[in-house]
Amino acid sequence: MPATEFDIIDHYFRQPARRDDVVLSVGDDGAVVAVPPGKQLVVTTDTLVAGVHFPENTSAQDIARKSVAVNLSDLAAMGAQPAWLTLALTLPRVDESWLEKFARDFIDTAAQYGAELIGGDISEGPLNISVTAMGLVDADAVMRRDRAQAGDAIYVTGTLGDAAIGLALLQQDSINDDSSAWLAGRLNRPEPRVDFALLAARCCDCAIDISDGLAADLGHVLDASGCGADVRLDSIPLSPQALAHFNAAGGIDWDVILSGGDDYELCVVTAPANEAQLVQAARQSGTRLSRVGEIMRRPGLRFLDAGGETRALANRGFEHFSS
Amino acid sequence: MPATEFDIIDHYFRQPARRDDVVLSVGDDGAVVAVPPGKQLVVTTDTLVAGVHFPENTSAQDIARKSVAVNLSDLAAMGAQPAWLTLALTLPRVDESWLEKFARDFIDTAAQYGAELIGGDISEGPLNISVTAMGLVDADAVMRRDRAQAGDAIYVTGTLGDAAIGLALLQQDSINDDSSAWLAGRLNRPEPRVDFALLAARCCDCAIDISDGLAADLGHVLDASGCGADVRLDSIPLSPQALAHFNAAGGIDWDVILSGGDDYELCVVTAPANEAQLVQAARQSGTRLSRVGEIMRRPGLRFLDAGGETRALANRGFEHFSS
Fold first, then answer.
1. In the structure, what pLDDT confidence band is assigned to residue B311 with cuts at 50, 70 and 90?
2. For residue B320, what pLDDT is reported?
3. Are the beta carbons of B231 and B160 closer than 8 angstroms?
4. What are the pLDDT digits (tens) for B124-176?
5. Which of A296, A278, A300 is nearest to A287 (CA)?
6. Are strands A153-157 and A116-124 parallel, antiparallel or unpaired?
C-alpha cells in the first residue's frame, strides 16, 4: 500500500522508458532527454483545477485524459510532435483507487500520441493537475499566432460548441440519452488533433488551439498578426447533437458556439495556394475540416450571418478572472 | 488594469527574450527553444502549495523566489545549467500588487541564474505555483542518484537544519532578532547551488538535492545505487545561528537537522580520486562544503555519534501524505 509521495511515484507513475530519446526518466531530481539534431523544442503548460476546469465529480480517467489532451492540443497548434510530459499533481488525500485509474489513463493517453511521462511532483493540497508537455518541430517550422495575412483562408477542425453544451447539460443533470452523453464526452474526453496538425504544419505557418472559443482565440491570431477577419456563421461546423440540442431549445446560441470554450479543436490559417494541401491533410488524418472565413486587412473580427450582416457576441470567450 | 488571464500574462509576464536560444517566448500556444548540439535537456517540476510548502502569510517575493529556487536546486543536483522555465500559476483572485511583486521577483530570480521564463498558464483556484525548469548538460554527463559506489566520499554543501528551525520559529511567532530572521530567510529565500554544481559535475557523477532532509535524500541515493553509508554526526555542518538555537533549547535535535527538510543544499558523492577537485570547485564558487561520511558496501544509512555509536532517527524526512 503506497503511503508517501515517493511510494506513489514508484508504484503508479514509474514505467519502463518507451522512447529511446529518454536518457533518464521518473525517479531522479530531473529527467534527461535528447533532442534530435535539426529539431527545436516546443514547451507548453496547462493546468486543470477541480471545479474550474472540470466538474468536481469528473472521473479520475476523464481528468487524466483531459489533462494530457489539453496540453497535446497546444503542441498540435504549434505543429509539434508530442514527445515528453511532466506532471505536477496536487492531491487532497491519497485515494488508491483514484490514483491507480488516474495514472493508468494518464500514461495510456500520452502513449496513444507517442508521448511519455518523464517526471513530476506530487504534493498535498486542493486538487490541481498541472502538466508540461514538450514536443519536437523541425527548426523554424512551427505554426504561430502572428503569421496570418490578409487574403488567407481560415479553417477549423471538428465541430464547435459541443463541450459548452455538454457542460450546461452536466450542470443541469440532463445527461439522459446518447446525444447528451456524446456532448458531455466532448467536454470530458477531448481528442487533440495531433495527426492532422503534423500534416497541416507542412503547408501552414499559422494556427491556434481554440479551447477558449473561436471568438477569443481567433482574436488572439488577429491581434498578434495585426489584421482582421470575416467569419461566416453558416460555415461554422456544428455536430448533429448540437443542432438537435439547439432545435429543442428554440434556436442556435452563437455565444455558446463561438465563446463557450473547451472545444480542443484547431483554427488553421493558410494562404490560398496551400488550401488544397490542407484539405488533403484533413482527409489523410480523418479529420473534419471547415473553411469558415478569410483574413482581412480591415481590423476586427466580424461574424456574418447568411444575409451578410455582422452579428454581435455577448462575450468573447472563456477567460479566468473575467467578470 | 489587467483583468483577465491574457491581460495578466501580457502585463506582468511578457518580457523581451534575453537568451538567444529562445525562438518564441510567452504568448503563443507553446514556447519554442533551441537545444544546442551536444547538449541534453534536463527537466524538473516542483510545486509550492500555500500552507503546505510555505506559511500562508509568506510574501509574494519570497514565494516567487522560492518557486524558482527549488526547481533550480533540482537542476543543480543534476549538474545542469539553468535555461528555461514555465510557470503554472493558480490564483484565488487577481491582486495587482501581489502579481506585480511575484512576477518581478520570479523573472529576476530566474535571470540571476541565467534562466528565462518562456511560458505558462494562469488559472483560478487555491494558490498553487507549479514550475517546470529546463536545463542543459553535456550529453551523458549528468549527476544521478544511482551512481554511488562503496568507498566514495559523501559531501554536503552549506549548513543543514536552518530552514526547519526557521519554520518552527515562524510557527511560534518567534522571529525577533537577526539570528531568527536569518534562519527564517533560509526557509523562505533558499539559494540553489548552481555555480558549485556546474563545477562539481565535471568531477562527480552522483548528487542529490537534499530538500527533504539528508536522511531521506541520501537514503534515495543508497536505494538507487544499492549500497549503504556511514555518516558522522560531528561532521554535519551547522550554522552558528542553528548552534545558538540548539544551545538555548537545551541540546541539538538531530531529527530537525537530518529530517526537517527545506534546506536546498546538495549532497554530492564522489570517488576519492576526485575529492581534491571537488573541494576546489567549492572554493572557486564560494560554497561551504563538508565531508560527512562514506559510501559502504553494507546496506543501510547509519548516523554515527562521536563515540562511533549508531543513532536512531525518529523519522526519515519530509514526505507528503506520510502519517
1. confident
2. 52
3. no
4. 899 999 999 999 999 878 999 999 999 999 999 999 999 999 999 998 998 89
5. A278
6. unpaired
**Contacts with B3 from chain A: Cβ below 8 Å:** 321-323
A26 in contact with chain B, both atoms CB, cutoff 8 A: no
Residues of B in contact with A130 (CB under 8 A): 45, 47, 88, 90, 121, 128, 130
All residues of chain A having their beta carbon less than 8 Å from the beta carbon of residue B34 are 40-41, 139
- Contacts by A167-170 with C-beta closer than 8 Å and gap 24+? A167/A55, A167/A260, A167/A262, A168/A256, A169/A245, A170/A55
Q: Is the dihedral of CA B118, B119, B122, B126 positive or negative?
A: negative
Q: How far is A174 from chain B (nearest CA, A)?
A: 26
- The answer to whether residues A177 and A311 touch, using CB atoms and an 8 Å cutoff, is no
pTM here is 0.90
Contact A86, A31 (CB under 8 A): yes
Cβ–Cβ < 8 Å for B91, B60: no
pLDDT, tens digit, for every residue of B216-261? 999 999 999 999 999 999 999 999 999 999 999 999 999 999 998 8
Chain B contact present for A50, CB below 8 A: yes
Q: Which residues, in sequence order, are bridge partners of residue B153?
A: B270, B294
Query: ipTM of this model?
Result: 0.88
Distance CA B265, CA B262 (A): 9
Nearest to A32 among B40, B74, B224 (CB): B40
State whether B43 and A319 contact (CB < 8 Å). Answer: no
Q: Which residues of A touch B31 (CB under 8 A)?
A: 42-44
The DSSP string of B107-158 is HHHHHHTT-EEEEEEEEESS-EEEEEEEEEEETT----GGG--TT-EEEEES
| Beta strands at A81-91 and B153-157: parallel, antiparallel or unpaired | unpaired
